[in-house]
Structure to design on (107 residues):
């Protein structure tokens, strides 16, 4: 969550999503698994050992996955910029952010 707040209220310096992905080795595609427990989405990734996050609803899901990926790859808060704009969940549909131009899709 701190990465997200930093992206919204933080540095005025412009850093592109592509720059962040390249600098910190964030892959273009990350496989995610999810389950719904007690009305919350619990998201893990077979590609990223120890990766886990949760969200209350679909709107929060993209934000929390984005923040968790930035945290997983140790992107400093002052450099954090969102790398996800869309998540494709096999058999369940697509979640898109309000940000334009999707950059990274997960499956």
């Amino acid at each position: 969550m701190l990465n997200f707040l930093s992206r919204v209220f933080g540095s005025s310096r412009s850093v592109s999503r592509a720059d962040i992905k390249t600098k910190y080795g964030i892959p273009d595609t990350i496989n995610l698994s999810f389950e719904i427990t007690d009305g919350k989405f619990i998201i893990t990734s077979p590609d990223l050992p120890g990766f886990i996050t949760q969200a209350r609803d679909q709107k929060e899901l993209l934000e929390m996955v984005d923040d968790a990926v930035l945290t997983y790859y140790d992107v400093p808060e002052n450099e954090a910029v969102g790398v996800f704009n869309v998540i494709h969940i096999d058999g369940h549909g697509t979640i898109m952010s309000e940000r334009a131009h999707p950059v990274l899709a997960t499956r």
